[in-house]
Write a structure and sequence with these properties.
The chain is mainly alpha-helical and 78 residues long. The protein is built from 5 helices and no strands. The chain has one domain: lambda repressor-like DNA-binding domains (434 Repressor (Amino-terminal Domain)), CATH 1.10.260. Helix 2 crosses helix 3. The protein starts with a helix and ends with a helix. One of its GO terms (molecular function) is DNA binding.
């Protein structure tokens, strides 16, 4: 998952970084730095993001890296 995919998935859910951190049981600083490209996410953080978004019904990896909307249906679980 790229930082842009993370941010797009979070925004589609209407979540702040703090809300994402709460749901993923992680520090909001970790996600903020990842989304801004300041620090890469560890494998554990990426797994946590994936689980949190899937649980909420969004497949962040299906979101185009340019954050376009043409595959929005593919990013949302059926």
């Amino acid at each position: 998952m790229t930082p842009l995919q993370c941010k797009a998935a979070r925004q589609r859910l209407g979540w702040s970084i703090e809300e994402l951190a709460h749901r993923a049981l992680r520090s909001h600083t970790v996600f903020g730095e990842f989304e801004r490209g300041k620090k890469p996410a560890s494998a554990a953080v990426l797994a946590s993001l994936h689980r949190t978004f899937v649980k909420a019904g969004v497949n962040a990896e299906a979101i185009p890296t340019d954050a376009g909307d043409e595959t929005e249906d593919a990013a949302c679980s059926q």
